[in-house]
Amino acid sequence: MDASSQLSATAIDPKLMARVAKGEHHALSQLYDQSSTVLFSLALRILGDREEAADVLQEIYLDVWRKVVRYDVGRGTPIAWLITLTRSRAIDRLRTRGPRTVRQIGPSIDDARTSQVDDHNSGPFDSQADQELQNLIKEAWANLPRIQQQAIELAYYEGLPDTEIAAQLSQPVETVKTCIAIGMSQLRESLQSYWEQDEAV
Q: Angle at CA 170, nearest 5°, toward 169 and 173?
């Protein structure tokens, strides 16, 4: 794998997205190398099924390639945009399965579904930058109070509205909203040093 593909997903250059939009095959391959581990992990975490997660990723990259969806610099970084697409697609797929059964809230980021990604054959997703970012995210997540972890999980991985989260956690809706806002803010602050270091490289 070349040096560019070793870059962390956070370092994706918006110019790369422009090259993909122009139909450059190498640019699409580079985008895949830099972002697929993060997106696959997210889709797998939401869906709990490797095959479905892979299908979601294939759909996203095909849509990006066919210009069905277009990156807009005004909507954040390329990886944030791709994460939003992945989350939306995975949650849509989850909803098409029919009535949702209440899933036991597990140990979160470190649970079995996520570890399937880590335990599977190592491949192009095992760059040092990816490992450092994974460890930093796990540490930041572990430092959140349990109620914040649960609220964020249900909102971002299950796609539940605040009212349903409040019902599942037996908490007032305002408490749920506060937990999500504070939890996400703490995660951003914990990762800020990584982003700044990454940008300086």
A: 85
